[in-house]
User: Fold these one by one.
Assistant:
Number 1:
Amino acid sequence: MKNSPRALLAVLVALLLSAGSGICADPQGYEIIDTQQVKQMMGAEDKPLLAFTLSPIEFAIEHIPGSTCIPFELIGNYYEMPEDSADPIVFYCHGPG
């Protein structure tokens, strides 16, 4: 996938949307991060789980290497989510527009 800020700009859009739907009852501790912050996190020893929130078809076409496809509608019960709630998770999609 091209290294585009637009592709990662919506890093926490899924979290913000899910906060309204009840999946994330407490949005405290969530933040929108930019491409540079994702790069820094991926360079750290304790890398976050990268979750691509669109369809498996879109994931097959384009995604960040090392990420996992977790369609938005399945986030609440997905088995690949970390057991430790302190582990960082970065949700991303193609961004707005």
Note: The first strand starts at residue 49 and ends at 52.
Number 2:
Amino acid sequence: MNSLIVQNPYAMLSWYIKHCQIVKAHLKMKKPRGLKKYYQRLETENDLKKLTWFDLEDPNAWFDYWHLHFDWNGLGNNSFKKRKPHLDKLFRHFQLLEEETKKLKKDFQLFAVLQDYKSEYDALYFHTRNPNKDNFPIKYNSLKQESTFTNQDLDAYLKKLTDYEKFYGSAEENYCVLFKKGLGIEPN
């Protein structure tokens, strides 16, 4: 049986770290493959159908800030052209969830939170009373209706969404909370 004897484990570790950095840099430089199909799927895919446990008809079901992200890799961080299909999918799922909530026989909150530039943090939230914490309903008291966004493309996109109430705030980054009046308990 051949075995590798390492005289200096620190040299081996140093080589391994350097090798990982080279591989990581190479992967960043490689042209991403399959993006055309990825963006085509964004237009049609229903992520709610993939969730076998998501049953709003179950009277024992509860949701503690349950949410879906649509741009896990942050493809839309540097390009609104790449972000828009993810936003379109988010708002399409908002409408799908709106339909699903008609089955629900309890109070709920349905809202989206969008970041100014960090697309991977954009999410659609569904929230009900839950055994984890006494945090229902959530209230956003310090938000304003005046936009705080510096991302002009995103701001223009949001202005076209006339069915949604929009409230803006700032933490590590400017953000917007969107919901529909009369749909569940409003978070403002």
Note: The longest strand covers residues 109-115.
Number 3:
Amino acid sequence: MTRSTGRERERRYGKGRIERIFIIALLSMVAFSLLPSGTGDAAPLLKVGSRDGYVYDLQYRLNELGLYHAAQDGIFGRLTLQGVVAFQKRYGLQPDGIVGSKTWQALYANTYTAREIDLLARVVSAEAQGEPFEGQVAVASVILNRLKSPLFPSTIEGIIFEKGAFESVQNGMIWKEPVKSAYQAVHAAIRGWDPTGGALFFYNPKTAASKWITTRKIIARIGDHVFAI
């Protein structure tokens, strides 16, 4: 192979490699642009007859709230419409069955991703081990209540992994496989059941190492835990 031929092949290879990288980058940008963004303003308007990934997201979130129990097939049909109307009525929106920016914003504010639900279930399973089901729901409720409070981080992950917030994070028990009832408890809390009445803290008075936590006002006692604000 002559030097000129080698250089020509190198030039062609380099050009082709750049073109391939550009195409991959472009396809990646397109793929990410098609994913639900998590913001109501960015999501498209959906109504009966709509078919796309956002309908899957809509059905998943309605199911999470107990408002949709059919197949999550990405098709906006009669049952999806019923779920949307029920959601709009529950959250004080115009019950027109059309999913616009206000409905999306309310959905994102009141539902959670699969990762967030898994993290919640892990904390519940570890922190409320041996507690009655109501006590498991109560632990999940504390985390959801913190999400609404300006005193805590603004995300589920931020709340769970805040330094010193949960013993199960510190000792690694959060990474054990959650029991089935923990997921059920998380969904019960998401759907509105809060046995604590708005608690932001919980602890076991027999094992609590922090003196500060015992100074908080107790508003509920469930199982071995007390719940406070």
Note: The chain has two domains: 53-110, 114-228.
Number 4:
Amino acid sequence: MSSQPEPEPSDELFRQLKELYSFFKVPSDKRSRDQCTPDEYERKKAAHTQNTAIARAPASFARCWGILSPEKRQRALELLLGHYCDTRAAAQRNFKFISFDRLRIDMLCVLTSLKIDPVRRFNTLLHHLVVLYDAPIDEREFEAFRDLRHKLGPERRVLYDLRAHPRDLSASFDAAEAVINRLIAEGQERVEQANAARVRHLVPVKAAWALLHEPASLVFGPASVAQAAIEVYMSRLGPGQQAAAVARLRDLLFEACEDRALHGEALDAADQLDEVLGTLRAGDIGHAICVACLTWLLRFYESRDASEAVVELKGVLDRFCGAEWTLEFPKLALTQQWYAAATVKALLRHVHERTDRQILAQVARIFPLDSPGTDSWAHARPVQPAEHPPVLSLGHRPSTHGDLGELDSTTSVPVSRYFPQSRRVGW
């Protein structure tokens, strides 16, 4: 009598790990060997090998899950999330790092090197989120475009069969080819629409990164000059709160990966990013940066005995620091908070070359405090892709995981970046 298979672990981390492995599946050509060119057949074998390894990995993890510490389970999932995001951004996807044996080794090495540093873990997850949203969505998402491939498969078989017949069937051949072209165009339109939404949803992700990586001295004062804001916010939390902040961001990253893999779409993460900032007790970060910049402006004009500018800036600062705007400003969208913080910060560089009246007029445009409610901030125009906030601040070089200096590169690529090859192998 055969023994019953052991039940899979029931905790949420394993469920996410198992589902995440399925996101790595690649389309496998269903044609027989004699219907494939040599290159197509090699791709078919490679896809079969990869999908087999992906299917086996969760079972391998299930067998040792019970002896893994909670930290090791979390790191295994976080490493796999990182590999998924990195492979989305790669033109040629290499999946050698996601096997059970390789991931187990990397998990132990990372645990040793990071010493479970919550700031680095949080930074790494936020980095992955930026990379994921920055990478164009394409037809290689296995599950998201399964329905279209299932439609294309029979039509391609019809076309293959017609090629073996005399050309007097050219009308049938042309008709079959027209169907295939229509389906491919349909898929291309889906990809282009998905990428248009992805570019929009990328903006709040980069806004969150930019705000959290402002120099902490701007938010907390000179004592924090060598740190980024994220480091100080995290240091003010207890161990349990730090773990909760990392877990909330990890759940958001998984959900974003899931939406992309299953639906070929980019998750609108703006509200969830607000929740992440809430777990860090950093919901006021945009307000704090604006207050710091306004205070600097006020002191500058005080040093010049510019009484009219001093009186006007004191009025702006007092109102902005009052109960109404201390409460209302953090309710603005992250993109609007970043717009205000970045614009007033940039204004500091121009105080010597512009008149007092020009600076005060710009301050009034940035901070429309005379109109009630947050609707008055609609003047902050939508941030276009070319105006994305920087992805790396100067304040966090010593402890930021990886170099994010090139993350803006893919946003300038047309959304159909991968489509020329789709007519050959993608769909």
Note: Residues 382-425 have pLDDT under 50 and may be disordered.
